């Protein structure tokens, strides 16, 4: 039965009284400003602002000093204090609590408003023609802080528009109308781009947080389903190997001592405490697991060659060790019971059948156990579905532990059962958390492609400028050097790694490029726009080296670039030509990337912790809801009969043996037809078996997603159809998961006279009922009587 996906958090919280508290609810968007990725992105933007704001203030100071001469010292101090507070307040935005974060972003905006108020009193003369107001650069800080601090894009755009208009009013009359209008429109467009860009980042982060939250819910459902199926397989194997085997041995008669011993062992298992320790079970060696099962393995000494020592030191998870030993014991038991043919059933372990159990470690971890015999063998394709020995105790038991089991046999050719487990097999739980790939807001592929395109554009622009305008061929040589190292940079950025030789080789070429790029050029004829083709190209290459995992070589290249510009254009040229601004923008971008990486790493840790808690709780919840319930049912129904077998030392009369057969079949139904059983069906099936009918109840998983109330009514309907039947053979079977049929009930009668004469005749169909799934079209049961099967 698959766990319902409705209100999974509520399911985890309910549990049973003895179950430990469930894992915390998945982290998702909350009222404090979004999920973890969104908060990390906002912290990254705040870190970027903290670096960029300092640059803008420093770049604005020379203009401020030139425009604010002969001003009262008090106003100068106030103006500088307000500008400094725009930078000093931003570190508050890097704190983890939402209050200081918002305060740290809004304080620069308030300080900027203060500067707009003070500026008319400090600026007495008109600005020189073509000059840029010093508050123009600081407006970018205010716009950015507003875009990050205000969640609503509409309100953020309105605030930025108001600041833009206020700036235009402050400088109206002190600058030309054309210049003021251009600044107004340009700042408005820049503010809009900032608001839209921040909104896009938030939307992407919120989408990733939402996908992460939904993925965690899916993980919880998956873990509960896996844990439930594992618990079912474990319980099925325990019941089959102990209780059912004891009942069959008692019903067969003959080996009374063996039946009593098996019944006593079954009672011990059913009487074991219900509660499992809440802590994760430790690993153990295969040898320790074998020693713990020595009582079961000792029954095969002399009947089989046990060569388990070679793998005794292999360390295994507890459930894997249990599964390997339990499946091997069941395979040996099947061999002892069946390998010698029908004559061997009364005298198990018939001489002449060679059987062995061999364990070997595997390269890379894990181990393999092979149980083989040279007995009569069997047709694996012809094993009926209701036979549980191989399917439940071997195949499903190993699958639930994340291992594999393979049974190879043919009539007259013996049987080989291979049990294998390797670390990290399909049964292992995924280590990578769901939604992890969505954390890359800017895919690496697009980023290195954009940087490569930027370098190509820079090379083309520098070459055309050198050939047509400046005729300085050093730029052409620098362009060719840039093209030479571009493929290496692209490969490194794409792969995320670069060899030492490649990293330092490209750095050496970058340094040579810096040395020759400005040969023959006059720094006075360049400004921050015209020189950007050179500086941006070198910085883009450094970023690609950083993406390739290198740290030293890109820093060396940027250092050489700064020294070369300072030597060529003077120290002030580093600021005038915009190199300092470009470096700060690059550093800010790397800080943004680092912040997202850090929050992603923190989210990974939280996800692994959540996953571990979910897994532990799911296992305990599955035990309490599935394993303990079924063991209690088996204890309630089988314990009195098992105790009777023990008290009688296995010597039972015919009525008691018939009761054992009935109980064994009822418990088999709990394993093979669990979804088809309620009290009404159990009572009806028991009544038919007592009158001598052969009844098979087979659940193929098609009822797992039907609501409990609907399922109970459907099963009551099955019981009503079964009650009047008097056929000798009855089959009740659920439909498949994709079928519109919920349950099929078939009642057959064999012509015993024809069968006794050896005639080949079909069974007569007394009843054939198909009950549709609730909610499907044509929702009435269809009945057919008469005719051959």
Please state the structural category.
alpha+beta
Tell me, briefly, the overall form.
elongated
C-alpha-based Rg, rounded: 40 Å
Distance between the termini: 30 Å
Enumerate the spans where pLDDT stays under 50 for 5 or more consecutive residues: 1-32, 341-351, 426-441
Task: Give average pLDDT, whole number.
Answer: 76
Strand content: 5-15%
**Helix count from the secondary structure assignment:** 23
Number of strands: 12
Strand arrangement across the biggest beta sheet: 2-4-5-7-6
Specify the biggest β-sheet.
5 strands, mixed
Helical residue percent band: 55-70%
Keywords:
789 residues, 5-stranded mixed sheet, 23 helices, 12 strands, elongated, disordered N terminus
């Amino acid at each position: 039965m698959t766990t319902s996906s409705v209100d999974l958090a509520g399911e985890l919280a309910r549990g049973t009284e003895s179950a430990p508290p469930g894992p915390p609810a998945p982290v998702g968007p909350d009222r404090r400003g979004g999920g973890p990725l969104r908060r990390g992105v906002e912290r990254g933007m705040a870190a970027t602002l903290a670096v960029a704001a300092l640059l803008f203030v420093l770049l604005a100071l020379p203009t401020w000093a030139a425009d604010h001469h002969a001003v009262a010292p008090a106003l100068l101090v106030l103006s500088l204090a307000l500008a400094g507070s725009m930078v000093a307040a931003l570190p508050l935005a890097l704190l983890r609590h939402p209050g200081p974060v918002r305060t740290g972003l809004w304080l620069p905006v308030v300080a900027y408003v203060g500067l707009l108020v003070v500026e008319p009193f400090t600026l007495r003369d008109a600005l020189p023609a073509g000059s840029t107001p010093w508050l123009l650069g600081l407006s970018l800080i205010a716009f950015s802080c507003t875009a990050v601090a205000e969640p609503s894009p509409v309100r953020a755009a309105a605030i930025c528009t108001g600041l833009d208009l206020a700036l235009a009013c402050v400088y109206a009359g002190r600058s030309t109308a054309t210049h003021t209008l251009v600044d107004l429109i340009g700042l408005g467009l820049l503010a809009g781009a900032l608001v839209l860009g921040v909104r896009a980042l938030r939307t992407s982060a919120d989408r990733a947080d939402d996908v992460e939250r939904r993925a965690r819910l899916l993980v919880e459902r998956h873990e509960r389903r896996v844990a439930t199926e594992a618990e079912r397989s474990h319980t099925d194997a325990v019941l089959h190997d102990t209780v059912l085997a004891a009942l069959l041995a008692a019903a067969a008669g003959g080996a009374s001592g063996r039946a009593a011993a098996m019944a006593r062992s079954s009672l011990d298992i059913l009487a074991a405490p219900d509660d499992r320790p809440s802590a994760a079970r430790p690993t153990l060696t295969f040898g320790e697991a074998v020693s713990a099962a020595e009582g079961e393995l000792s029954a095969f000494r002399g009947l089989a060659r046990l060569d388990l020592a070679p793998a005794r030191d292999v360390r295994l998870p507890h459930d894997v060790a249990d599964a390997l030993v339990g499946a091997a014991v069941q395979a040996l038991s099947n061999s002892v019971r069946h390998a010698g043919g029908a004559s061997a059933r009364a005298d198990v372990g018939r001489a002449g059948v060679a059987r062995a159990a061999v364990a070997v470690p595997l390269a890379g971890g894990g181990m393999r156990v092979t149980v083989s015999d040279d007995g009569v063998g069997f047709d694996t394709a012809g094993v009926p579905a209701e036979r549980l020995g191989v399917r439940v105790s071997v195949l499903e038991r190993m699958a639930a532990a994340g291992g594999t089991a393979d049974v190879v046999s043919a009539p007259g050719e013996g049987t080989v059962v291979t049990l294998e487990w390797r670390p990290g097999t399909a049964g292992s739980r995924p280590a990578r958390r769901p939604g992890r790939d969505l954390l890359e807001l800017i895919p690496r592929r697009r980023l290195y492609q954009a940087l490569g395109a930027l370098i190509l554009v820079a090379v083309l622009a520098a070459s055309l400028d050198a050939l047509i305008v400046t005729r300085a061929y050093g730029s052409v040589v620098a362009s060719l050097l840039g093209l030479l190292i571009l493929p290496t940079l692209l490969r490194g950025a794409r792969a995320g790694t670069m060899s030492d030789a490649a990293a330092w080789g490209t750095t050496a070429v970058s340094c040579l490029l810096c040395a020759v790029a400005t040969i023959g050029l006059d720094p006075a004829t360049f400004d921050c726009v015209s020189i950007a083709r050179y500086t941006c190209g070198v910085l883009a290459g450094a970023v690609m080296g950083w993406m390739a995992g290198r740290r030293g070589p890109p820093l060396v290249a940027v250092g050489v670039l700064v020294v070369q510009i300072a030597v060529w254009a003077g120290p002030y040229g580093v600021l005038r030509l915009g190199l300092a601004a470009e470096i700060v923008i690059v550093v800010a971008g790397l800080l943004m990337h680092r912040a997202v990486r850090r929050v992603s790493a923190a989210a990974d840790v939280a996800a692994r912790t959540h996953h571990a808690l979910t897994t532990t709780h799911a296992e305990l919840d599955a035990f309490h809801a599935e394993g303990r319930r079924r063991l209690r049912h088996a204890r309630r129904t089988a314990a009195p009969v098992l105790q009777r077998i023990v008290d009688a030392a296995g010597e039972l009369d015919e009525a008691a043996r018939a009761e054992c057969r009935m109980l064994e079949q009822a418990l088999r139904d709990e394993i093979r037809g669990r979804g088809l059983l309620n009290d009404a069906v159990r009572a009806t099936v028991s009544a038919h078996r007592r009158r001598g009918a052969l009844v098979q109840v087979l659940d193929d998983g098609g009822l797992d997603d039907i609501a409990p109330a609907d399922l109970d009514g459907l099963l009551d309907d099955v019981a009503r159809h079964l009650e009047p039947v008097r056929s000798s053979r009855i089959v009740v079977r659920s439909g498949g998961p994709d079928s519109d049929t919920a349950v099929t009930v078939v009642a057959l009668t064999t012509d015993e006279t024809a069968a006794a004469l050896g005639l080949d005749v079909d069974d007569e169909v007394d009843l054939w009922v198909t009950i549709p799934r609730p909610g499907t079209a044509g929702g009435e049961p269809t009945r057919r009587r008469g005719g051959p099967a």
